Amino acid sequence: MKKILIGLFAVGMIGSAFVWQESTDEKTGNEISVPADSEIVFQDLSFEKALKKAKETGKLVFIDSYTSWCGPCKRMAATAFKDASVAKLFNSKFINLKIEMEKSADGPVVARKYGVRAYPTLLFVDGDGKLVKSVIGSQTAAQLLGVGKSL
């Protein structure tokens, strides 16, 4: 009986370690399932809906302000945003948005409102739309962790 309980406990622990979240494949735009906390999960919300959700949850909105032609933006998306420790912190602490500043509906509005002139620019905004912190330039996983923990 003891071996069976230990086996069930182990299966339960392993099963709980593999929680899946929905994400969007950046290349195809298709919805995919990824292991929770394996990368930052950017939500498919308008800026206004993200602010509303932030107000309801008491979280800040994290915005990755990028352009399709920005090399450092692509590098950060492929590295720091896929770091497990960064993902765990950002997925639990923030409403995460990726906003293409030139082509998306919210991009030009957000760029004007927060003075985004360089890419990437990382914005942290409260539920009222007040800018809490802005970070300009590509960040390593360690730098992102530092910023995320400071807020």
How would you portray this structure in words?
The protein is an alpha+beta fold and 151 residues long. The protein folds into two domains: 1-35, no CATH class; 37-150, Glutaredoxin (3-Layer(aba) Sandwich). The chain contains six helices and six strands. It has a four-stranded mixed β-sheet with strand order 4-3-5-6. Helix 4 runs parallel beside helix 6. The longest helix is centred in the N-terminal third of the chain and has 16 residues, at 2-17. It is globular, with a radius of gyration of 17 Å. The protein starts with a helix and ends with a helix. The relative contact order is 0.16.
Write the layout of secondary structure elements.
Layout: H1 2-17, E1 20-24, E2 31-35, H2 47-57, E3 60-66, H3 71-78, H4 84-93, E4 94-100, H5 107-114, E5 121-125, E6 131-136, H6 141-150
Parallel strand pairs: 3-4
Antiparallel strand pairs: 1-2, 3-5, 5-6
Helix pairs in contact: 4-6
CATH class of the largest domain: Alpha Beta
Shape: globular
Q: What share of residues are in beta strands?
A: 15-25%
Report strand order across the widest sheet: 4-3-5-6
Helical content band: 40-55%
Major sheet description: 4 strands, mixed
Count of extended strands: 6
- Number of DSSP helical runs: 6
The CATH architecture category of the largest domain equals: 3-Layer(aba) Sandwich
SSE order, as H and E?
A: HEEHEHHEHEEH
Classification by helices and strands: alpha+beta
The total number of structural domains is 2
